[in-house]
Amino acid sequence: MKSLKNFLSTLAVMAVIAWILCSSISAEAAKKVVAVMPLENISGFTQYKVAEIMTENLMVQIANSGNYTVSERAQAGRILKEQGFQNLTSGNPVEMGEMNGADYSVVGKVTMAVITKDAGGNVLNNIVKKLDGGRGTIIGQSTSFINQIKAKVAMDVRFVDNKTGEVVFAKTFEGSKSGKNPEMTLNEACKVAAQNFLKEVQSVNPFAARIVEISGNEIYIDEGSESGLQKGETLIVARESTPIVVKGKIVAMKTNAICKVKVIEVNAEYSICRAENSSAIKKGDIVKRG
Fold it and tell me: Distance (Å, rounded) from C-alpha 245 to C-alpha 251?
């Protein structure tokens, strides 16, 4: 009898684990998959592996957005090599992305990467030395915190819809950062460029939902996991005001931000948010990412 109870208990635990895994897989499957192809470095900069650093930053930013799933890079590289793509940045991005089961492909090149002395840091350093006047060491020690390195990068990127073959956008994105360590500063500059890329991606297909029900401080909206929404996100509630008219046609509506809400539950087709004070919120208000 005891062994039967243990078996049933184990079976119950396994069932719960399986349910959790299925729920997780279902939520992930609802997100669009992006294949980030390894970028090519044509900048002439060889001190650090800037193309690899930029590719990694693109993957991290896209994955952390919560709207997309990034296909695993090593798997993408293996599949492409098996198909005969010696140069992973060449070839048809649609075919390459589809081989990896992706909805979109990111293809690009690092066109500029430079590390220079930060002029502002040098000026501040000279001021500190002048104030010190050669006496004592306290002021001199503070110079170790002055940024004296500046990194600047640029990449030309295409964001391709693998289903249609359409280039959604093709733009140049830049990033710059100041710091003390050259390699770390270069990485931070790549991060800024990747963040600028993500802003463009999100503007192409921005998240927006409508409030369909209000129960106390709980707000029900008409979008869920299928739109890439995640539990814990903070959203902005806004209300449409006056229309924007161009050549006699309404092309958009002005919106006024009301408050912020937090996503506490995400289902396939709807979600529940919580507001600290829902008195100013009405059905039909827009909920969007800030």
Answer: 6
- CB-CB neighbours of 19 under 10 Å: 10
User: What is the bridge-based pairing of β-strands 234-246 and 208-215?
Assistant: unpaired
Q: What angle do CA 94, 99, 105 make, to 5 degrees?
A: 40
- The radius of gyration computed from the CA coordinates of the chain, to the nearest angstrom, equals 25
How many CA atoms, within 13 angstroms, populate the side-chain half-sphere of residue 129? 8
Instruction: Report if pTM > 0.70.
Output: no
CA nearest to 236, candidates 263, 265, 270, 202: 263
> What are the tens digits of pLDDT across the range 5-40?
554 455 444 443 343 344 343 444 456 789 999 999
178-188: per-residue pLDDT in tens?
998 999 999 99
Within 13 Å and on the Cβ side, how many CA atoms surround 272?
8
